Amino acid sequence: MSAPTATAPADLGALVDLLRGRRLAVLAGAGISTESGIPDYRGPETRHVERRPVQYDDFVRDATARQRYWARASRGWARMTGARPNEGHRALARLERAGLVEGVVTQNVDGLHQAAGSGRVIELHGALDRVVCLGCDVRLSRAEVQRLIESTNPGWLRLGAEAGRMAPDGDVELEAGIARFVTPVCPSCGGPLKPDVVFFGESVPKPRVAEAAGIVSRADALLVVGSSLAVYSGYRFVRQAEKEGTPVAIVTLGETRGHPHAAVALDARLGDALPALADALGA
Ligand SMILES: [Zn+2]
Q: Which residues bind Zn(2+) (predicted)?
């Protein structure tokens, strides 16, 4: 038996009491997108899955790593673009429209907050629908790069990604045919292309961190949703809130490393808990 968690789903009342009358900074993690069919790296269901996501240094230095990345990710993209926002995303957008949200700081790269109607979103780890050239810094849309891939690898994208397990960064587990895959390069300078997301081993750009920190500073409470806070890029905002005397609330499935810092923690599905919270706060 596992130890009992601090609070049960029945404790929505404690969450509402804490957050009522406060303007929220929201810190969102992969857990909010699992109900949209995008798997979590570290959620309760995937904790046992071993996966080696591409490291930034390898991607920059090693053409084989880029080939492998683009071969797999290009097949996962169709499934990523098929994902739609869920009740949890929509509840956050509703809270923002009601003037109760200072901003959403998200660790997700799937664009689902914006698709749900959230206006002020800081994408800490970037966005999968943008691509940047490491040679000349030009920005491309992901759709444009997918077209490049299709033109140099006819039929590749139509092979489908269904057989491979997909990760939240759009990566798909597949091996067949990768050696023959032609890696897309920048149409302007021929340089290597990288999705505009923060890879493992790469830092979040400082101005982006500062913008997110500003949202946390201006808010009266920090609401963490669907993040295990396992990576420092998100956890730092819990520490910041604590330092600034701003209460922290956590709604997620399972224990997180932020729990010792939280005034209220709710172990619940976000698709249930966030709409109920928005209702209770009058959004
Ligand atoms: Zn270029």
A: 133, 136, 186, 189
